[in-house]
Amino acid sequence: MQIKIKDLEFETIIGILDLERVEEQKVRINCTIEYDYDQEFLNYAEVAAHLQKEMKEKKFELIEEALLSLKNSLKTEFPLIKNLTLEISKPDILPNCEVSLSESFIF
Predict the structure, then answer these.
(1) In a domain, 84, yes or no
(2) CB burial class (10 A; 0-12, 13-18, 19+) of residue 31?
(3) What is the tens place of the pLDDT at every residue in 19-31?
(4) What is the dihedral of CA 65, 19, 11, 78, to 10 degrees?
(5) What does the alpha-carbon distance between residue 67 and residue 75 come to, in Å, rounded to a whole number?
(6) φ, ψ for residue 17 (rounded to 5)?
């Protein structure tokens, strides 16, 4: 099975610039999870809530750090995950484009 969470959007502290450390900014997360369904399922609402909670609590400086931390916490919280693709975007950081980083993980 494959779960896709598209355009999960919220505001959080993320970044290394002085302003980014005190003012929340919009982030957007896209996530694809693959798992084997056999009588046990992954609750996508819990996954989305977990992503948002981790980002808001940890206040990452780098998107790279956020990707790796989310990978680890998702695998711990949801051990059924076999493959994971995460993309974190900062849609408003530059005036003329959206910036994002992504990574795929195989467990």
Answers:
(1) yes
(2) buried
(3) 999 999 999 999 9
(4) 10
(5) 12
(6) -70, 150
Unique residue bearing structure tokens 């959206």: 98
How many of the other CB atoms lie within 10 Å of CB of 92?
13
Spatial contact of 15 and 93, defined as CB atoms under 8 Å apart: yes
| Domain contains 100 | no
60-90 per-position pLDDT tens digit? 999 999 999 999 999 999 999 999 999 999 9
Containing domain of residue 15, as a range? 2-39+47-92
Section 30-59 average pLDDT: 97
